[in-house]
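hey can u check if this looks right to u? its 278 residues, i copy pasted from the old doc so theres a chance i mangled smth
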Amino acid sequence: MTAIALTIAGSDSGGGAGIQADLKTFSALGVFGASVVTAVTAQNTHGVTAIEDLSPGIVAAQIDAVLSDLTVGAIKIGMVSRIETIRAIAERLRAHSRRAVVDPVMVATSGDRLLREEAIEALRAELLPLADVATPNLPEAALLVGRSRAADEAEMEAQGRAILGFGARAVLVKGGHGTGARSVDLLIRPDDVERLSAVRVATSNDHGTGCTLAAAITAELARGSSLDEAAARAKAYLTEALAAGADLRVGSGRGPVHHFHRWWPASPPEGSAHSKAP
């Protein structure tokens, strides 16, 4: 059986985050990707200039079309900015008896707000109870629980446990926005905490990191990995993609990670036709 993953998220015209990053990640990890588009953004490496949400009806119809035909092994939910769309997604997933990896996308790497203030409660009430795992970064976790951003691992765990209280089966609180030589994520479940640590990569090409990590977890789950295995493998993949992406030349702002670093180099070999200026 072909491993299939579904992403329900917004489109990034710059190609570094959202649906585009998810499908690249699925492909890079050997998984066939299907997609449900929730919104179209006008976006590049400098920021988001416009957002147009699709109607809840067409979002629901896309979900039904995919899940009625494809044998989807795992689902990821990313950018959903409207209450009505959140409710439509939750209703269709319940109708299909499905759960998901929920990435509560609230703010883009550029700092642009992607989730309307009034939709935060709907995300808590409708989507988190359907989460096999929620994957907030430090600012997102703080917004979800109404606290200041966690400054240490004890507070990361406390905020993760508060998010468990909304109904998620597990929470991965991501430490990429933290400080220190290592980036530490905490995979929190009611009875245990798994600490995932990797060298912090110094790069400005970090657009789409949250989307990519959640998509990598989804891909690994679709392939049959346990959540522990999926989280560890996804973090390793993202760390490699960040390191390789430091040499990508995409845009003049915060560029993307290198999703296909295992197949082609970020910089063409010296002396090749592509390395020469036009």
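Strands lie at 4-12, 32-44, 47-53, 74-77, 100-102, 131-134, 171-173, 182-189, 192-199.
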